[in-house]
Amino acid sequence: MLDKPQLKSMLDTPVAERMPREIAPGVFWIGDCLAQRHKGKSYHGYNAAYLVAGTEASILVETGHPKDFPVIERHMNELFGRGVAPLKYLFVTHQETPHCGGLGRILKNFPDALLVGDVSDYHLAFPQYEHRMRSMNEGDEIELGGRSLMAVEPVIRDLRTTWWGFDTKERVLFPGDGFAYSHYHEDGHCGLIAEEAVSLDLPDVSSTFADLALFWTKFADMNVYCDRLDHLIARLDVKIIGPTHGLPITDVKATVPKVQAGLKAAALMPESGTNEKVAVAS
Ligand SMILES: [Zn+2]
Ligand SMILES: [Zn+2]
Description:
By secondary structure, this protein is an alpha/beta fold. Helices cover 26% and strands 21% of the residues. The strands form 3 sheets. The protein has a 7-stranded mixed sheet with strand order 1-2-5-6-7-8-9. Strands 10-11-12-13-14 form a 5-stranded mixed sheet, with no helix packed on it. A two-stranded antiparallel ribbon has the order 3-4. β1 (21-24) and β2 form a beta hairpin. α5 (202-213) packs across α7 (252-268). The model is unreliable at 1-5 (pLDDT under 50). The site of one zinc ion has 7 residues, from α2.
């Protein structure tokens, strides 16, 4: 993991000033939260994006929710203004709105950028950008200068077309929906990494998210998937995790088991459905 002094604590920084946040040298967490109500509680979730900057080029991982595009664009331009290498690539983990909802606007506003990853169907929505789409397979790498972004096995995924991303220099894993959990705005969790949000019950919020968003986990043996996840983390020597919906994880050894506990707990509960149930009058 990072040396502690390298990752400055954000606990004393006002929420509005926490982003963009450099979670590892040259890896910037950008975007905004989305508030949702479920069972009378207000949950905040991220639809985050990450900018990974090499010496020659930067790659944007995910685009954020469509509503977040102005924030994402402002954060990126702030970073480019600071001298971060220009945007040459966009990698999205899969074809779902909170992950790729800004894709058309990124390709329009950054005419030199190529779309990389699994590019199925995007040409149907954006035929004008089809010549800028490049398909990746597992192990393929995009060279950024001094580091690369690799497509890796998506152990816990939403769609079959998913790829996870991996920064080879700081060993940051971008698992899309793989580590998905909400946080509490009231507790000041916004813009914090998972280890700073000490009052966040990770097994609980992870199991809630799995219940609402990862339907298939109800019908699978999640022990097998969690073992496979441990195997991937060990094989790649992952140091940091940058999830799309959760808070970034900088202590993999301590925090990953808490998320896995949530996935395993959710798998044993019947699905609650995404709508509040109303009793039918007899
Ligand atoms: Zn998602
Ligand atoms: Zn928040």
